[in-house]
Structures are given as structure tokens and as C-alpha cells.
Amino acid sequence: MNAEKIEDAGAEAGKGGTAPEGRRTAADAELVRRTLDGDHEAYRTLVNAYQNKVYGVAYGVIHNREDALDIAQDVFIKAFKKLRSFRGSSSFYTWLYRITVNMAIDHARKKRQTVSVEYDDRLLDEAPPEGATRGAKQANPLEALKREELNETIMNAIMELPEEQRATVILREIEDLSYAQIASVLGCSIGTVMSRLHYGRKKLRTKLSGYLAAGDTT
Amino acid sequence: MRSLIRYAAVVALIAAGAALLPPRPAWADDQITFKVIVVKATKDGNSMDPSLQKYAHLLKGKGYTNFTKLRSTSLTLAKGASGTAKIAGSLKAVLNYKSEINKRIAFSCSVFKGSARQTSVNYSIPRGGKAVVVVTGTPGYILIIKVS
Amino acid sequence: MMNERTRLEIEIARYVDGEMTQAERAATEQRLAADPELRRVADELAALRPHVAEAVSSAAGSIDGERIWRHVSERIAARPSPFETFLSGLRVFLQPKVAVAAVAAVILIGLYILSANLIGPDQAIAAEPMITDVEYDNPDIVVIVNEDAETQTAVVWIDGIDTSEVN
After folding, report:
1. Is residue B12 in a domain?
2. What are the φ/ψ torsions at residue B100 (nearest 5 degrees)?
3. Are A198 and C13 in contact (CB under 8 A)?
4. A48, C65: Cβ pair inside 8 Å?
5. CB-CB under 8 Å, A125 with C64
6. d(CA C102, CA C96)
7. What are phi and psi of C138, to 5 degrees?
8. Which end of chain B has fewer surrounding CB within 10 Å, N or C?
9. Which of A188, A195, A209 is the best substitution to test chain C (most C C-beta atoms within 10 A)?
10. What is the tens place of the pLDDT at every residue in C62-106?
11. How many domains does chain B have?
């Protein structure tokens, strides 16, 4: 296998240059242009479009809701300040992910946290989080408990990965980025992306072998 | 006028304070010296260059039994600079000194075959530490990089 | 053996991630049909993704969409020009208390560096990894790393470069 063949394969597999992605890139470019012309509402549209993704990536790397929210805010402030230097050679969201991952990894390194478990749902919303099982009605409480235990095990395993592997796994498994896109976000080669994914997933598979072998799904 | 005098006084005091500062300690130099020893390793024969005896424990493994010192190169690099250590033929190692943080030297060692980079390893090694790079094959090549 | 196994698992990951050409997919599917162990790896990789997605989204929860924009819009609306920022930075030093504090800080820092120099830079070095990252440009090679904190030695083995022709 070689890098060129892999990038061709990525395109053929429909991971790059697809019609919806092309339209999104063009729409983002227009919003960036309007923001640079002084239209803050255009920037609000960009923030609304990407805030969940930015928050999600930040959370995946640092596993702390308040800090992830702070990082998300800082990402958009930094992106606004640097908008003039965004040359459009990559897509806007790739550029945004790059800022997010760098900030999140810096934050994680400073804190050097390995495992952080949060139980207080009241930090953000009054409403319960999407997908949360705690406190919600469940047809099968035992299933809910097993799911909660599995989720906690997975989060702990993710947090034990080195920051670069963690970010690579998050960008692939949560954000569904292609290898080429991840390489662009992280500023590394596709070979490095494959290597980090391999070692990161290997550690996760080892930690979750019991669950995966049992075919535990919801 | 009073603000201007006050401002000038502050600048003068800061300048005096700066003049009292001791010279930068040696361990915060902007230059680092990397000593690179290149060893050729084969699986035929059983000998070791006498000058490599003290590194014997680093050279074992992968079935190599014969060790010949090819050369020793000293690279003194300023922050951000790169230096090349030839390995053999078209193989070479390029070291890039990045920074020093908490007395750990951050640098990279990239292995090139001709002009094609094969891999790059980023290090954070304490002064006095060593990085050993083993390019396995027939023959194998071992780089011992001492950070001082 | 290790090299071949790692290489195979990376290929399987490419298959699961949809990073292969159609021809490569067809060849890999044949291989998976003939190798139950590889099939198990592929199944585990495929099963991992929904679990990870569920765990992260469940833990992350949802966010108040307006909160981020409120904070961002306040900051971007209130941004001063670069020259105003520079001037306001200078004005701070005209206040007597700040000026005294700045001089005291300079003197204290000087004393600290002086004392550190006298004692010597013999402080404990943080126990951090010595190999911080490996970048691959040649996808055919495998790099194995090992570290010995006691002797402060980091060893890297690079497998897969053909050295026979470099002599």
C-alpha cells in the first residue's frame, strides 16, 4: 500500500469530493466571506452549524463538560480572530477541527488527566442530556445499568490513550472523517493516522474484549 | 508632565533590575550538541569494535553478532536547526533540535533513504540521555544519539 | 511475525473504514471468508464504533446552543484595535502601584534565577515519555519503541527498510 493509492481509494470510497460536501464547503466559504465583510450574523450561522461538532471533539479528548464548553467558545473566538489567515486550501470545518484538536490536546496535556468521571448533569442544561439513561424511564433497568457500565468503561479506556491517539480515534469514530481528512486536521501523514488508529483501537478492543465478544449492542 | 516623569522612572527601574539579573544559566543554551555514533551490524561473525564495548548493552538484539563502528558525528544545532548524519549509502538521519523544556531536549530524528523520508521520531530526552535508532535489515545500522 | 500481523490488522481497519478501492475490498472479503481470526478482528473493529459513539455522546450530553454564541459574540464585538490594545497595555505601568509591583516582580525573578544558579540545575526531571510521536511516511515500515527511564535511553526499531542496496 502507498499513500497515493490510499488517497485515490479514499476518493473512490466516496470519502472526498462528494456533492453534499462540496455544497457545504461552498456555503461555508460564502459565510466566511460575509463575516470578513463585517457580517456577524454570518459568523453566528457558522457557530450554530459547528458548535456541537466542536464541543463533541473537545469533549472526546478531555472528558470534562465545562472545560469542553470553554474550549468550544475559545475555538470560535480564535477562529474569528484568525479568519483572515484562513486561505481556503482546506475546508472550513477541517480548519476548525484543527484548532479544536490543538486546543483540546494542549488542555489535556496541561491537566495530564487520565480518567475523569462526571456525575453532575446539572452543569449545563436543566433538561437531561440526549441519550442519557440516568433518571430516564427505562423499559429494562438492567439493560440501562449494563449500558451505563459499558459507557463508563469505554470512556475510561479512551482517556487512557495518549492524546494524539485519542484525538485520532475521536475524529474517526465520532466525526466519521476519512484518513485523508484526519491527516489534514492533525497535520500528519496518512500512515501516521493509520498507525495511531491501529494502536488506539487495539487498546480499546483489549479493554472491551468481554463486551465485544458477547456481541453486546443496544 | 508628572505622568511622563513617573513613566520614565519605571522604565529606569526596570532597566536597572534587568542589569542586576545574572547571566543565563548554561542549561538554557540555544544550542545543543548531539553526538551520533553509526554502527554497522551483521549476523555473520562475532566481534565488536573496542570503542563500542560500553554500548554493548544497547546493541544486542535482533540476532546481530558483529558490530563495526562506521563513524562518529558531532552535530551542534541551534534551536530550530537541522543537521545530517550519514548512515550508509543513501541512508541518512536528519536531526532537528526543537526546544528545551524542563531540561528535556525536544528533537526529531528522521530517517531518509535518498530523498524519501521513511519515518520521523519525536523525542523529549533529558540531557545526558540517549536515543538509539536501529534500522533492521541485512546489514543493520544502529545510531546511538547522545544528547549533551 | 509481529510486522505481518500489524500490517494485516491495519489492512482490515482500512476495509472496515471504507478506505479501500473496490478491487481491494473484493480481495479482502475473500481473505476474511478464509480466515476466521481476521474475521473476528474485522467484527470487533466494526462493533467498536457504535459503542464509542454512544459512550461519548451519552457522556458529553447536549449543550445550550445560545450560550456559546452569547459568549463568542460578546468577545468579538468588544475586540479593540491592535493599537488600542498596545496603548492600554502601556498605560497600566503608569499607575504607581502597578509600577512598584512590576519592579518588585523583576527583582524577585532575578533573585530566583540567581538562587537556582547557585543551587544548580539538579532538579527532578518530570517522568514524561521520551518518545513523544512517530510519523510514518513509508507505510510498509513498522516502528517498535522501548524506553528505559532508569538509563534515560529510548530505543526505536525500524523494520522494513531495505538496507541491502545501500552499501
Report:
1. no
2. -125, 120
3. yes
4. yes
5. yes
6. 10
7. -105, 110
8. N
9. A195
10. 888 788 998 898 888 765 555 555 665 666 666 677 777 777 888
11. 1
Asked if B94 has any chain C CB less than 8 Å from its own CB, the reply is no
- Cα C74 to Cα A46, A54, C114: the distances in Å are 16, 19, 44
Instruction: Find out whether C59 and A59 touch, Cβ atoms under 8 Å.
Output: yes
Q: Is the distance from CB of B136 to CB of C157 less than 8 angstroms? A: yes
**Do residues A190 and A180 make contact, with C-beta atoms less than 8 angstroms apart?**
yes
| Phi (first) and psi of residue B114, to 5 degrees | 65, -125
Cβ of C76 and A6 within 8 Å? no
Q: Which residues contact A74 (CB under 8 A, 6 or more apart)?
A: A103
User: What domains lie within chain A, and their CATH numbers?
Assistant: 10-113+139-213 (1.10.1740.10)
| CA–CA dist C48, A212 (Å, integer) | 7
For B34, the enclosing helix (H) or strand (E) is strand B31-42
Interface with chain C: mutation pick from A208, A209, A218, highest number of C CBs within 10 Å = A208
Q: What pTM value is reported for the model?
A: 0.54
Q: Which residue, among A107, A106, A98, A211, has the nearest Cα to A157 in the 3D structure?
A: A211
Determine the residue type at C8.
L
Contact criterion met (CB below 8 Å) for A92 and A83: no
As a whole number, the mean pLDDT across chain B is: 83
Query: Is residue B5 in a domain?
Result: no
Bridge partners of residue B78, in order along the sequence: B31
Report the pLDDT value the prediction gives residue B148, as an integer from 0 to 100: 84
User: Do the Cβ atoms of C136 and A191 come within 8 Å?
Assistant: yes
Amino acid (1-letter code) at residue A145: L
The CA distance from C60 to C39, in Å, is 32
Size of interface B-C (CB pairs under 8 A): 154
In a domain? residue B15: no
Is B66 among the domain residues? yes
